[in-house]
Design goal:
The structure is a homodimer of 142-residue chains. Chain A is built from six helices and three strands; from the N terminus they run H-E-H-H-E-E-H-H-H. In chain A, a hairpin with a 5-residue loop joins strand 2 and strand 3. The first copy, chain A, is mostly helical. In chain A, helix 2 crosses helix 3. At the A-B interface, helix 5 and helix 6 of A face helix 5 and helix 6 of B. The structure holds a DNA duplex (30 and 30 nucleotides).
DNA sequence: TCCTCTTTGACCTTTGTTGACTTTCATATA
DNA sequence: TATATGAAAGTCAACAAAGGTCAAAGAGGA
């Protein structure tokens, strides 16, 4: 895959986080931009598109002298959105009697326990895929 | 029969996939079009007519700078060892009345359709995870 | 001829890149 | 203490660089 500048900066930041002890790094926006020979707002763009809470990251920053951007990876909340959505969806299906209580229990158990060896990004994709498939299944059988 | 341009592009892509490690390639639409001296939408046409899910392929793409099209060949899941094992296991559960026919149908549909964006290896891992989880679930409820 | 598949191109949508301008903060200075 | 100054980061809109859509025209075979 040809990597865009944004891709490279993303990867760079992820390596830094991976190497860190506390899943947390502090950078200076201008300095990072300098490293990649681009404008500082490019870094802002990368953070806005690839390090959102949805992606399992939280960033806080301070302006002015000695300013910084701190990026923290929250493994806990990672893929939480998809997980929550999927659970909510399954609840709805039960409410509308599209599935039974027994099926719901099995599904919830499954999605809670079957994918613990995947990283949060993969989990997100898996949950999305399952949601889509269940949705299709229900549509087929209604 | 004379080979159309679309046929040639199709063959070209299939060779690339055959040579790849993971049954998956990434191309740039414009670049491929350049190679065959045609308009980019010709490539789109080839993908739409010869690399559909029915044909056993899944394509995803990204627009914008350094965009790409990723084409994945989804070999028949039935030939995947983990898939076969999982299906067999689910059949057993039904036979022992650990799950109902309804549950079985849902599960089979799910594992057949939910993970098409993953490559072979990842699917294997996913199926293993699901099998383990179902096994645990049944043990808990017997 | 007629029908189906192919080819093309104009226009659309999404994603990435840049730079001018704004806001916030620490610190030096009156 | 109040204010000025400079050094950060944020915002936003214009522009660039991909891929997508769709309809019309072309080509070839039954």
């Amino acid at each position: 895959m040809k990597k865009s500048l944004a891709d490279k900066i993303e990867q760079y930041i992820k390596v830094l986080i991976a190497r860190s002890e506390s899943d947390q790094i502090e950078i200076q926006r201008a300095e990072l931009a300098e490293t990649f020979s681009c404008v500082p707002s490019q870094v802002t763009y990368v953070l806005a598109t690839r390090f959102t809470e949805r992606d399992g990251y939280v960033t806080i920053s301070r302006r002015g002298g000695k300013g910084y951007v701190r990026i923290t990876r929250c493994e806990d909340t990672a893929s939480l959105r998809e997980f929550t959505e999927l659970c909510g969806f399954i609840d709805e299906l039960l409410a509308y009697k599209a599935i039974s209580q027994v099926e719901k229990d099995l599904l919830i158990y499954l999605i809670t326990n079957a994918f613990k060896y995947f990283n949060h990004q993969q989990k997100g994709q898996i949950y999305d895929g399952i949601k889509q498939a269940i949705s299709d299944y229900v549509n087929l059988h209604e």
